[in-house]
Specification:
heterodimer; A: 309 residues; alpha+beta; Multidrug efflux transporter AcrB transmembrane fold; Alpha-Beta Plaits; 2 domains; 64% helix; elongated; B: 532 residues; Gyrase A, domain 2; 4-stranded antiparallel sheet; 14 helices
Chain lengths: 309, 532
């Protein structure tokens, strides 16, 4: 019977040997991303900055430039108008948030400007304070989640594994955030979820490889570390690519069929899965080489060989 | 040989069937749903962005009430100090390290301990520091937090009353953080009315009008010089047609709207204009209004709502039955709204809208349809890929993947979790990641076979060897998602729930369902027929 094999059996790639270049590449990308994040910043959406979003269906095809000019006169900050789907469907964003009673007045002004017969599919108002709280809450939640995973890995493996996994994770996050900075992608509330998904996928992927390394450490006690990491990476390569493919397929269908909002959310996840897979293979695992990991035989005196099975 | 006991197979199958049973109501159309037995009539809770409605985040203005609280303590302290003849050169509320503090400068340092006693009698949760003649009192953090909690709690009650009065169905009103309240109104597209209602504190008070000072009439927006007199303040009264009257009212509150039991729109018998009939409770309210009307018989008094005079009529008779009428320059709508607000009670603190999201029902329906499509396509893509990679074993995964999705729906329904847009994306992704455990096992089986182990043994070996990996990788995700749920808010929480459920369910389907199917299938197979 025919079987689809993405990766042929018995590969012997010297991944650790090439890790110098890969780590240098990863470091360069991180530096580029971080400098974009620092100097250009993220393209924050209304969720964070505060402001107004209107999703409307106009009664007839609108004159977008004229409308933009009219809305610009309302003194509600920068106006962004996007046409999507049918020509009558507009997404209007105004970036100047108000507090308290100014909000209702601002919405009324926009309604007056757009005129009669408009269907309001979505009207959102975000005050200026909410955004900054959202950022600090998200950062807190993600940081705690990272620490918890680090502790779990440190307990189940060795602390060195935890450190390498978290370095790989930081690499992923830097690239995802960098992507939001480099490309004209809006960073909104759902983007946080995209970053989280990437992180959870990546950690999952890393743990699978680490698990194989741990197993091989017990099995091949005298094997040199680089060789052992290579053996483990090649052994899991088929699974790594297969799972990445199935997950990418699922995200691809989100991107293609999920509609505008979900598609905007699926794109960074696709990149995230590729980056997460890359980091598990080329960052997290080769990094282990630089740590002096205690082998089973060295600590056999301290504890009886544990067999989880 | 891979052996799974009969009881385990039976349990697994019944769990899957129960899951399927509870997932179905969320997936069928309305007419089929109506024919289902009642215990199955529960569907997944849809988030507002999916079913359409209005989401309003309110901030409770705690600073204002906290300041009021400190000022009332200061007033009380001033009275007490005068009574006990303690001299001071300063007594006021001042800026302090965090927030504000009551600050007293005494003439004589010897009085300090006496002052401390007086202050702690007025308010027991004061932290009082004495520095020679300086006495500083700060309300303790603990008490501030307690206070904030109470104010927010009371606000939620009042909000619920007011929204119920408007007839909005199934509102969700939740506390968020220290000083936030989230109000969700499904099916409401334009919440202008609700927002207007929530924007009013609706504190109704009755005051006597000062007889020496004149009421001053002016045009709206005109600057007027108002005379000042201790214990008296001028408050505006709108007279219509751009005329504002400034009425000199006594600061002291004679009666508040707290002791009201009912408020209804009624017509003023003399003028024929709309007004609000109010009824005071039988004990305290009735006594107080009787006293007030006796004291101000044939004299002017004022009805004040949120710092504005509604009207300043003259008591014509002593009111003994606890009934009164509020008059003013009302339209019918004004009167209806005022009656509603008075019935629902006053807010303990002003509320500010900080965030508002309104989604029309058509957009929500589009999102659901898109989410459904994406999920179906994800399932088909992943399923085909698994079958292409593992043939029969791939089909087994497809069956368990299907059960996985059904169980996820069932769990969301039974837990009453809310499905949001990122949640739908989470489900589609779970499909991609759920097969990972299967992939791990199948790859392991292939490795074992390549090492020369006979297939039937390789299958059970594969399961055994992949176990630790699967548990470690899934537990890491689980630990992460629990922490996210604990500390995250809004969409992060929703995402964490889907992720955690997806992880647990995929563990179940891999080690119970897929394993059972494989075990049953292998029973009568010869070695050469087993190929992964």
């Amino acid at each position: 019977m025919f079987r689809l094999h993405l990766i042929p059996y018995g590969t012997k790639f010297d991944i650790v040997g090439k890790s110098k270049y890969m780590l240098a590449l990863a470091a360069t990308i991180i530096v580029v991303c971080l400098s974009f994040i620092m100097f250009k910043g993220l393209n924050y959406g209304i969720d964070f900055k505060g402001g107004y979003i209107f999703e409307v269906r106009m009664p007839s095809e609108p004159n977008v430039p004229a409308l933009r000019e009219q809305l610009g006169k309302l003194d509600l900050g920068e106006v962004a108008i996007q046409q999507f789907g049918a020509k009558e469907d507009l997404l209007i964003k105004l970036e100047k948030p108000q507090e308290g009673e100014g909000q209702a007045a601002a919405i009324q002004k926009v309604r007056d400007t757009l005129g009669e017969g408009v269907v309001y599919k979505k009207v959102e108002t975000v005050g200026p304070k909410v955004g900054s709280e959202l950022v600090s809450n998200a950062i807190k939640a993600v940081t705690f989640a990272l620490i918890a995973m680090l502790i779990y890995i440190a307990v189940r493996f060795e602390w060195q594994f935890g450190v390498c996994a978290v370095v790989a994770l930081l690499h992923d996050c830097a690239i995802i955030f960098g992507m939001f900075s480099i490309f004209p992608l809006e960073f909104s509330e759902t983007s946080i979820t995209a970053v989280l998904l990437t992180a959870s996928y990546s950690i999952n992927d890393t743990v699978v490889i680490f698990d194989r390394i741990r197993e091989n450490l017990k099995r091949h006690r005298k094997m040199e570390m680089s060789e052992l990491i290579n053996l483990s990476l090649n052994g899991t390569l088929s699974r790594t690519t297969l799972t990445a493919t199935t997950t990418l397929l699922a995200v691809l269908s989100l991107y293609l069929f999920g509609g505008k909002v979900i598609a905007a959310f699926a794109l960074p996840i696709m990149v995230g899965i590729i980056v997460g897979t890359f980091s598990s293979i080329f960052v997290a695992s080769p990094l282990l080489k630089f740590f002096n990991i205690k082998r089973e035989d060295e600590k056999e005196n301290n504890r009886t060989a544990s067999n989880i099975n | 040989m891979l052996v799974v006991s009969k009881t385990r197979i039976a349990t697994t199958l019944s769990i899957c069937l129960i899951g399927l049973m509870f997932a179905i109501p969320s997936l069928v159309n309305q007419s089929t749903y109506d024919r289902l037995p009642t215990f199955l009539q529960h569907t997944v809770n849809l988030g507002l962005e999916l079913k359409g409605g209005s989401h309003i985040q309110l901030e409770v203005d705690l600073k204002t009430v906290q300041k009021e609280r400190q000022e009332s303590i200061t007033d009380e302290a001033r009275k007490q100090l005068r009574k006990q003849n303690i001299k001071y050169s300063r007594l006021n509320v001042q800026q302090h390290e965090n927030g504000s503090a009551i600050h007293i400068i005494l003439k004589d340092a010897a009085d300090a301990s006496k002052v401390k006693k007086i202050l702690s009698k007025i308010e027991k949760d004061l932290e009082i520091t004495i520095n020679n003649t300086d006495v500083t009192a700060v309300i303790s953090q603990n008490s501030m937090d307690e206070f904030a909690k109470r104010i927010v709690g009371e606000s939620i009650e009042v909000i619920r009353h007011r929204i119920d009065e408007t007839g909005t169905k199934e509102p969700t009103i939740l506390r968020q953080g220290l000083d936030r309240i989230v109000v969700q109104l499904p099916g409401v597209e334009d919440p202008a009315e609700v927002k207007r209602l929530l924007g009013k504190t609706a504190i109704l008070t009755f005051h006597g009008v000062d007889e020496e000072l004149q009421t001053i009439h002016a045009r709206e927006g005109e600057k007027v010089q108002l005379p000042s007199k201790p214990g008296v303040m001028y408050l505006p009264e709108e007279r219509g047609e751009g005329i504002v009257s400034y009425v000199p009212i006594k600061k002291q509150v004679s009666l508040t709207g707290k002791s009201l039991v009912d408020a209804q729109v009624s017509m003023d018998s003399r003028t024929g204009l709309p007004g609000v009939s109010i009824k005071f409770d039988s004990v305290e309210g009735t006594r107080k209004i009787a006293e007030l009307s006796a004291k101000y018989l044939h004299k002017q008094f004022a009805m004040v709502l949120d710092g504005k005079v509604l009207s300043a009529p003259v008591f014509q008779a002593v009111l003994t039955d606890g009934n009164a009428q509020i008059t003013g320059n009302f339209t019918m709508e004004d009167a209806t709204e005022l009656a509603l607000l008075l019935r629902a009670g006053s807010l303990p603190a002003p509320l500010n809208v900080v965030e508002e999201r309104n989604v029309g029902p058509s957009l929500g329906a589009d999102s659901i349809a898109n989410g459904k499509n994406a999920t179906i396509f994800a399932f088909v893509f992943v399923g085909l890929f698994m079958i292409a990679s593992y043939w029969k074993f791939g089909m087994f995964s497809v069956v368990s993947l299907f059960c996985n999705i059904m169980l996820l729906f069932a769990c969301l329904t039974l837990l009453g979790a809310t499905l949001t847009l990122p949640g739908i994306a989470g489900i589609a992704l779970t499909i991609g990641m759920a097969v990972d455990s299967n992939v791990l096992i199948y790859e392991r089986i292939r490795e074992e076979v390549r090492m020369g182990i006979r297939p039937s043994l390789a299958v059970s070996q594969g399961y055994k060897m992949a176990m630790t990996t699967i548990i470690d990788s899934n537990l890491t995700t689980l630990v992460g998602s629990i922490v996210l749920y604990e500390f995250g808010s809004g969409p992060i929480k929703g995402f964490a729930v889907t992720l955690a459920l997806g992880t647990v369910i995929s563990l179940f389907t891999t080690f119970s369902l897929t394993k059972s199917i494989i075990a049953i299938w292998m029973r009568n197979k010869k070695e050469q027929e087993i190929e992964v």
